[in-house]
Design a protein that fits this description.
With 129 residues, the protein is mostly helical. The protein is 68% helix and 8% strand.
């Protein structure tokens, strides 16, 4: 679902997860760094999609909107962890002496190990050398 949403729509949902906001209030839009030019269309589209509701003069997120928000957050975090793993590969290539640390970091980023397991691996490898 999140891939069909624009960055400005995701930004609006991110704010609605924490609190309702006055609907199309210029001050509320400015304080939250929302795109004033697109917020009206975003509200209309997200409302049509069932991701937010306009109740009186307030915007509120729906359970479906919360799910879309957290799905997008999860996808962004997964992308970041892939970047961490790729960066660990690059550091390991550039600095072979960091082999154990980069291996542990990669395993941690990929979810294979906990922090405790990664630290224990690094400690074991240090004792071996």
């Amino acid at each position: 679902m999140h891939s069909a949403l624009s960055p400005s729509q995701l930004h609006l949902l991110r704010h609605l997860v924490t609190a309702e906001i006055p609907s199309v209030d210029a001050t509320a839009v400015a304080v939250r760094d929302l795109d004033e030019a697109s917020v009206t269309d975003d509200v209309r589209t997200l409302s049509w999609m069932g991701l937010l509701e306009v109740t009186g003069t307030r915007l509120t997120i729906t359970p479906r909107g919360k799910a879309a928000h957290f799905e997008a957050e999860c996808a962004a975090l997964a992308e970041r962890l892939v970047e961490v793993s790729v960066f660990a590969d690059e550091l390991q290539r550039r600095t072979p002496s960091l082999d154990a640390q980069m291996h542990a970091l990669r395993q941690l980023a990929e979810g294979a190990w906990s922090v405790t397991e990664a630290a224990a691996y690094v400690d074991r490898r240090a004792k071996e050398h």
